[in-house]
Amino acid sequence: MTGDASPVGRARRADPVRPTLLSVDGLDAHHGLLHAVRGVSLAIAEGDKLALVGANGAGKTTLLRTLAGAHPASRGTIRFDGVDVTALPAHRRVALGIALVPEGRRLFPDMTVAENLMVAGRHRRPGPWTLDSVLDAFPLLRPLRHRRCAALSGGEQQATAIGRALMTNPRLILLDEVSLGLAPLAVDAVYESLARLIATGATVVLVEQDLGRGLGIADRVVCLLEGRVVLEGAAAELTRERVTEAYFGLGR
Amino acid sequence: MIWASVVIQGVLLGAVYALFACGLSLMFGVMRIINLAHGDIAVIGSYLVWVVATRAHVSPFVALVAVLPVMLVVGYALHVALIGRSLRGGPLVPLLTTFGLAIVIQNALQQVFSPDVRSLGSAAGAIATASWRISDALAISWFGILVLAVAVLVLGGLDLFLRRTGLGREMRATAQDPDAAQLVGIDARAVYARATAIAVATAALAGAFLAIRSTFEPSSGPTQLIFAFEAVVIGGFGSLWGTLFGGIVLGIAQTIGGHIDPQYSILAGHLVFLVVLASPRGRQLAARSTAT
User: What's the first-to-final CA gap in chain B, in angstroms?
Assistant: First the structure.
């Protein structure tokens, strides 16, 4: 029992109208001796678009991977739709509706685009996303669907990676550095499709190094510094300067 | 004509090696481990078929139909109990575990069945000895053709399974990136256990064919493991059609060597293996990283 009335204050300020989908309480995660995530508490309501910002090594990727079950939590709890998932392996969390688009895309390189999508669709929850609807949402993938993923450009690979996550019909999508290593034009294309995804009311947690991109798409911002939440608030209320300050740990 | 015969016998011998190598190749392709007990698991298959055939007084082929599903279950259990756990200890631990398993199996078989040399050849009836006589120098045995057909069916069928079915795609995805596979809902441990189950069943099939074709004893495993390993390396790690090709190349090398002088048979196979290892392709083997 981690009590929904726990006094973590500002970090748990979810919209009271919409039900809480994910609640994280006092989460710690380690990389060997490195204490990468320290006491993080968050609440994400259905339909939230949360941008997770922070400098290199702030623990953003580790936090996302811990939420997805790809990295073990060393302390704290993760509840998804009321169910304690802290001890569940990644594939069981996918079945509940958590999908991670991992950093570096991590496609299956020797499989085609269609195979990458279909393999993710094998254990899909019931929902709107099928091979056809994903190819409709990412029209650039349709002519490439029989191409090996290793032969795609970075932007095409990123579209495939997002489509692959959608194939599981997630209720919560965790996106890790979707613009990393992409040409500016490809970044625009990826964000265009993200904007369309977000317009459908999806619940999204987005890790982004590019502050402008992250703030542009999110309605809430959480800033991590050295594994801790140092700033949290509605995107509209936070100035770029305050986020930048928190980002670099200035004014502390 | 005599050389045609030598090559054809080599192809038929190679089919046995390819069947032995099939499971080794699959396990390496999916999990990146080399199962050093593979040959001994095949010999368990030989003994199980022998037990069922002699106790129930049925043909070894009928016995094989009963033994294969049992070996699928044994393979799955072996993975859950042993190989899966050792995989978590890093790449070296499965090697040591399966090496230990090989020793345990050999000694257990010795204890239960005595070190006597056995064969299922006579129990198999006419098919084990009959052949088509095409000319004075060339005869093709029915059993050899049967083994070749089964090898093509098993390796080709497995290749098709990996390419065309959902379970097969899961296996390839897990082989290429187990971490990412889990993130799209695949239970990597279950996929690994299925791969081991298939590998163990094909090993048992190869063991039964070996027992019908020639003889077996508790210590037959390591020799078969070496031939299987050579077939996998010659054919290129992780490719099933390559494994069939590698087995056949090894078989032909052995029969040609044996034709020149019986004592060169095994040596000729080893030499081909060494040539492949020393070739540029052999040096790339370590860098190969895909399942199919």
Answer: 37
Give the burial string for B192-204 (b: 16+ CB within 10 Å, else e). Answer: bbbbbbbbbbbbb
- Candidates B93, B48, B98, B64; CA nearest to B78 is B98
CA dihedral A30, A31, A35, A36 (to 10 degrees): -90
Which superfamily, per CATH, for A19-248? P-loop containing nucleotide triphosphate hydrolases (3.40.50.300)
Q: Is the pLDDT of residue A4 over 60?
A: no
Eight-class DSSP state of B27:
H
Q: What is the mean pLDDT of each run of 10 residues along chain B (292 residues)?
A: 90 96 95 95 97 95 96 98 94 95 98 95 85 86 95 96 95 96 96 98 97 95 96 86 95 95 93 90 58 40
Q: How far is A83 from chain B (nearest CA, A)?
A: 18
Domain ranges of chain A: 19-248
| Residue A240 reports pLDDT greater than 60 | yes
List of long-range contacts for B155-164, beta carbons under 8 Å, 24+ apart: B155/B18, B155/B19, B155/B22, B155/B240, B155/B241, B155/B243, B155/B244, B156/B240, B156/B241, B156/B244, B158/B22, B158/B26, B158/B198, B158/B202, B158/B240, B159/B240, B159/B241, B159/B292, B162/B240, B162/B291, B162/B292, B163/B292
What average pLDDT is seen over chain A?
89
Percent of chain A with pLDDT over 90: 64
- Does the pLDDT of residue A6 top 70, yes or no? no
pTM of the predicted structure, to 2 decimals? 0.90
Whether the predicted pLDDT of A5 surpasses 70: no
B194 and B171 Cβ atoms separated by less than 8 Å: yes
What pLDDT is attached to residue A64? 96
Listed in sequence order, the residues at least 6 apart from A211 whose beta carbon sits closer than 8 Å to its beta carbon are A53, A240, A243, A244, A247
B99 burial level (CB within 10 Å; 0-12, 13-18, 19+): middle
In the block, residue with structure tokens 């726990």: A6
In this complex, do A110 and B184 lie within 8 Å of one another by their Cβ atoms? Answer: no
Do the beta carbons of residue B252 and residue B11 sit within 8 Å?
A: yes
Q: Is the CATH number of domain B2-287 2.40.128?
A: no
Helical residues (DSSP H) of B165-187, grouped into ranges: 166-176, 178-183
pLDDT of amino acid A200: 83
Taking only residues 173 to 212 of chain A, the set having a beta carbon closer than 8 angstroms to any beta carbon of chain B reads none
Question: What are the residue ranges spanned by the domains of chain B?
Answer: 2-287
Q: Is the pLDDT reported for residue A235 higher than 90?
A: no
Of A94, A110, A115, the CB nearest to B290: A110
In this complex, is the C-beta atom of B176 within 8 Å of any C-beta atom belonging to chain A?
A: yes
pLDDT given at position B287: 53
Which positions in chain B touch A99 (Cβ < 8 Å)? 183-184
CA A149 to centroid of chain Cα atoms: 22
